[in-house]
Write a structure and sequence with these properties.
The protein is of the alpha/beta class. The chain has eight helices and ten strands. The protein folds into two domains: 1-82 and 165-243, 3-Layer(aba) Sandwich (Rossmann fold); 89-163, no CATH class. Strands 6-7-8-3-9-10 form a six-stranded mixed sheet, sandwiched between helices. α3 (120-132) crosses α4.
């Protein structure tokens, strides 16, 4: 499988010399890497190292310098609809009375067809995406009645309904127990087998070593890129975790 030890077939995402500044503060400096189709990659670093800034920059949420290339095409900063981005604290009111299927249907807005009566194509897409994350039987349940892990998968299904080929997740496994975190990564592995590429930030290095074949480590700049069991030696960890 492409997300294991096999080499990627080619970059679906190429990042070259990406930098981000907030006024006089340099948050990211000259970051370059590539991710292949069907790869699941962990993004690691200390709090404040720039993980969230990197994901936001890739998603076109904040300004940056450098290039982001998807499938060989340079991206305009605000034209990255093939990227599904799930932030660490999504702007979702989980107490709002909305059904799971309607949350996922929101991902179809990029196609300009979602209104009072969704197109049949959108309805089919929503059912398919919920099935891919194992929530097909909960489509009509209120979002507020789901567990935290299930709500996270609803947001993932919404990104899939967007027909995103690249999924960016900021600390998606934070705050869940090991069993649920493993189940989430199992879902990513299945999606990777279907050609999706996943970049997920995590602060849990033991989890990253156990479940990921590749990690990208940053601390303002890129410090490590490779198999976490090989690249996370003592010196690398010192540099990654120092602030």
């Amino acid at each position: 499988m492409k997300h294991s030890s096999d080499p990627p077939s080619g970059p679906v995402l190429a990042v070259a010399h990406l930098s981000v500044s907030y006024e006089s503060t340099r948050a990211l400096d000259d970051i370059s890497f590539e991710i292949g189709e069907g790869e699941v990659v962990a993004l690691i670093g200390a709090n404040g190292a720039g993980k969230s800034s990197l994901l936001k920059a890739l998603a076109g949420q904040i300004r940056h310098t450098g290039d982001v290339v998807i499938g060989g095409q340079h991206c305009h900063h605000l034209d990255r609809q093939v990227i599904g981005y799930i932030p660490q604290a999504p702007s979702v009111n989980y107490s709002f009375p909305i059904r799971v299927r309607d949350v996922v249907l929101g991902g179809r807005r990029r196609f300009g067809r979602v209104g009072l009566r969704p197109d049949p194509t959108d309805v089919v897409a929503v059912e398919s995406c919920l099935g891919q994350v194992g929530l097909a039987d909960l489509a009509d349940r209120p979002l507020s009645k789901l567990s935290g892990g299930q709500q996270q998968r609803v947001l993932l299904a919404r990104a899939l309904a967007q027909e995103a080929s690249i999924l960016l997740l900021d600390e998606a496994a934070a705050g869940v127990d090991e069993r649920r975190a493993d189940a989430l990564i199992d879902t990513f592995d299945i999606l990777a087998d279907r050609g999706k590429s996943v970049l997920i930030s995590s602060h849990n290095l033991a989890f990253v070593k156990r479940r990921f074949a590749r990690c990208i480590g940053i601390n303002t700049t890129l410090l490590v890129d490779g198999n976490p069991r090989e690249v996370l030696d003592t010196d690398a960890l010192t540099n990654l975790l120092s602030k």
